[in-house]
Sequence to fold (228 residues):
Amino acid sequence: MDRTAAVATVHIARRDVARKADGLRARAIGLLVAVIAVDQAVKWWAWRHTGTARINFGGDIFVNATISQWYANPVSGAVLDLLDFGLLTAAIVFLVHRRRPVVVLVVGAFTIGGWASNLMDRLGLHYWTAPGSVRGAVDFIPLGNICFNVADVFILVGTLPLVVAVCATSRSATIVSAAPRVYRTRRARGWLAGIATATCLVAVVTVGATDYGGITVPNAVTSEAAAR
Fold:
């Protein structure tokens, strides 16, 4: 009887830990979505109400001129966007697959949310934030010879703390186990969701590659049309 009670206690403890981990992961995903929402809203405002907004249709300061030209090209840029989407998806899985300390989840949500928001500009949200523009991210905060956006701020704020926190906690992280049947069910649903997402993504990128837009800075005509 004591053995049965001990086993039940262990199962309850594991279930409570798993529920807590699921709650933390849900909050991290919510924070990531909030980062994207804030950045996109500010970009929408900046394109219409500032005189410094422009479209960055190439790469960024971390890549050389050749790779920037690849990003600027409609076809090769679309292929690179698909690759970046895969890398960000892997980063999100890495963030939420194991139990992570709160600090890792928070700075991870900042960093991945920033990269994701800039990528979403290239995947089609620029049609909403900057109608008529070429595919690219909306930059509007000048700093010397470069221009950046709120997503870049989230990336800069989160990247270094994320690397430090992951390195410091990697040894203590453990995988939250689940029942085999539940795991198989979730994996099957994950595959279906992944296939559906990939199909939609390819369609969106194809449209973006063929309907590339034309302007890199806002103008009065675009602003008035968007306001209507």
